[in-house]
């Protein structure tokens, strides 16, 4: 009897192992979501490439043979569907401690220099007491407090990482202009140009992609103290056996993508010259640690 019990336990463990590794579970029902309109409008289209986030997503869908559309869905709704056990994963999202409690993350699919605080140059610069010895802003909400007649433009559903998210949560709501994620990059500069806001939190690569050296308004920028210099985007899924199998499939594809020269190329081609070597070295170091 003990022998049969042992066999049952052994084969059950093999079965579960197969589920988690993706050998048994069919992951074809997984649907990828994003709240990035630029991605959904350009993925699998002839006018790609467009940005590192779009181009790396393109590399991934080719590598895993994903032949369905990536659906444009609000992040709140995507997370609700994942929480309900639906076969949904979200592409190109940043890790946070809160998210890691509930969801499963892939390996990094892309890397970016972290966001900076941009301020209209028509305002006085931030006072020295708001900066550290490296000229980095110590607290975003304190900077806004010092300009209490000003507002900051922020995407309404977005995680910048735990350190910045906590900082932003302390900003007076009357000083925040929240834009939907899909329209953020197309609208923030119009709002600032119209004088409705004086601050924005933006990734340098996104600003360079949108305007290059021809920004319609002059802005100064500040790095954020005690914040990582680089951030990575991931595929986020739930923790069902199907989701775990899909993440394993994605991770295998990402590791293969890391080995190809195009992975570095799609990151550096959209950056100003003075940032290319910095991000290239950072990516090489991160990838070496993973592989």
UniProtKB/TrEMBL annotation:
This is Solute-binding protein family 3/N-terminal domain-containing protein. The lineage of its organism: Bacteria, Pseudomonadati, Pseudomonadota, Gammaproteobacteria, Alteromonadales. It comes from the Bacteria. SUPFAM superfamilies: Periplasmic binding protein-like II (SSF53850).
């Amino acid at each position: 009897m003990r022998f049969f019990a042992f066999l049952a336990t052994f084969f059950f463990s093999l079965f579960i192992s197969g589920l988690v590794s993706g050998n048994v579970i069919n992951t074809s029902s997984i649907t990828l979501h994003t709240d990035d309109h630029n991605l959904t409008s350009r993925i699998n289209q002839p006018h790609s490439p467009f940005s590192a986030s779009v181009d790396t997503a393109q590399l991934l869908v080719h590598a895993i043979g994903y032949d369905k559309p990536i659906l444009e869905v609000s992040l709140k709704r995507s997370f609700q569907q994942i929480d309900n056990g639906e076969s949904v994963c979200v592409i190109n999202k940043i890790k946070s401690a809160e998210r890691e409690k509930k969801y499963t993350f892939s390996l990094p699919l892309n890397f970016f220099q972290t966001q900076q605080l941009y301020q209209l140059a028509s305002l006085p610069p931030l006072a020295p007491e708001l900066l550290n010895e490296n000229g980095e802003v110590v607290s975003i909400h304190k900077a806004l407090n010092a300009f209490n007649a000003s507002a900051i433009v922020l995407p309404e559903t977005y995680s910048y990482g735990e350190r910045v998210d906590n900082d932003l949560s302390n900003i007076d709501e009357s000083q925040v202009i929240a834009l939907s994620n899909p329209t953020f990059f197309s609208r923030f500069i119009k709002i600032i140009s119209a004088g409705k806001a004086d601050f924005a939190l933006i990734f340098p690569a996104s600003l360079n992609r949108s305007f290059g050296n021809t920004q319609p308004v002059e802005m100064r920028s500040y790095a954020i103290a005690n914040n990582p210099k680089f951030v990575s985007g991931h595929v986020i899924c739930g923790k069902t056996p199907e989701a775990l199998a899909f993440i394993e499939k994605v991770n295998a594809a990402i590791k293969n993508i890391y080995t190809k020269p195009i992975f570095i190329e799609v990151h550096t081609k959209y950056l100003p010259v003075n940032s290319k070597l910095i991000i290239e070295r950072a990516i090489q170091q991160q990838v070496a640690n993973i592989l």
